[in-house]
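S., here's the first fold you wanted:
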Amino acid sequence: MEEPLVLVSDESGVRTLALNRPKSLNSFTGAMHGELAAALDAAASDAAVRCVVLTGSGRGFCAGQDLADPAVAPNLEPGAKPVDVGATVERFYKPLALRVRSMPVPVIAAVNGVAAGAGANLALCCDLVIARRSASFIQAFAKIGLVPDCGGTWLLPRLVGRARALGLAMLGDKLAAEEAERIGLIWKCVDDLVFESEVRAVAQRLAAMPTRALAATRAAIDAAQQLEFAAALSHEATWQTELGGAHDYLEGVAAFMAKRAPVFSDR
């Protein structure tokens, strides 16, 4: 039997999804897209899952699209019809980015090695990015005559500003994880020796928190980027009305008043 292209494991409410094409630095094929989409949907529908960790097997996180995949490999025969790379984005990368950013639980990108092209932007789609100090991020698209995809054009300027976004996207230089943290591209860079324990600790912390409120926080912050200030204030009130009638708010207040640890369960 062929080994799965996405490895799935569970620990105390945390589901880890590991891209599993280590010999090709976990670059994407249509088949791996299919397995990852199914794994994300399964995690979203499983009430026992309270946090998702997305990582890679071997020495890389994800090198982006496998350019040998028939879906994107150009036909070099004279007069041949060009391959429609945009169709691959619409079929695979757009649904992937939207799925990650709409998960009902927090999503951590545990970047264990190089994250290039769509692999880099997949990581940036996640709520928190924790990277090994030896990891790196590369917007490799311009090097093959393309623009950033998997949400890169939307994410980069919002994370680091237009000037840095253009520099990263146009030059395609390798960005060390420590520098990525310094400029605000990612949440945290940690030493390689403590990387796994740090990811586990943050994931377990998120899993113990009010999951529904965390997912709503993501949604509210994303929505506010498109709103005027007054509209954002009203949007916050709408969320507080919904969350204020839920179990976790009542439990959180009761635990605070009683000076005890809360037990959250909403999702």
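And the second, which I think is the more interesting of the pair:
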Amino acid sequence: MIIPSAAAAFSLRRSLLWGSLGFGLVSLCVFATVAFAERWMYTRLGLSGAYLAWTLLFILPGGAALNALVVGERRGIKFQLLFGAAFFAYAVGWVLAYFMLSGGAAGEWVGSLAGSVLMGLVFAAGFGVLRTAPVLCVILFVANSAGYFLGSALNDSIGGRAGMLLWGAAYGLCLGAGLGAVLHVAQARRASALNSVRD
């Protein structure tokens, strides 16, 4: 019996496009709360509460947007939980690394690496493709770093609310493409492994 391949159901091109646009829209909305309500959120929720709120704002609609790229038994609530665990691990890794290094460029780069590795490991474990974990981690690190630092440069050069919104768009489009690629690769590898076992 042949297991339907994720690569056949959702091409890499479609996964990149859907992930980029879907997660890009989510990111734009989250960064809009930073642009228009950051001070209010810090006052009402404190630093940790604001970061937790932003993380949840990424997780809930982000998982729903990317769920369209998932096939088989991991679709729906299972993927929402997996994405929640992966993004939460990413956020914890990023924030801890950033603040342990007192911010700055070093904190941002190490945070991007730590968060991407943790997210990649959770996805690899969740899809049962641990041998593919290094590939997933590299994809996420490249996509996350490209979006974060491109967005940061746009924000620095333009400033204000417009700059923050552009940061959110760049971050979401790039990381979303990376997430789409990760879902494509993880599911294709899993389908290939299952087919080889059944053969």
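Why I say that: The chain has one domain: 11-191. Helices lie at 6-9, 12-66, 77-100, 104-126, 133-158, 160-198.

Talk tomorrow,
H.
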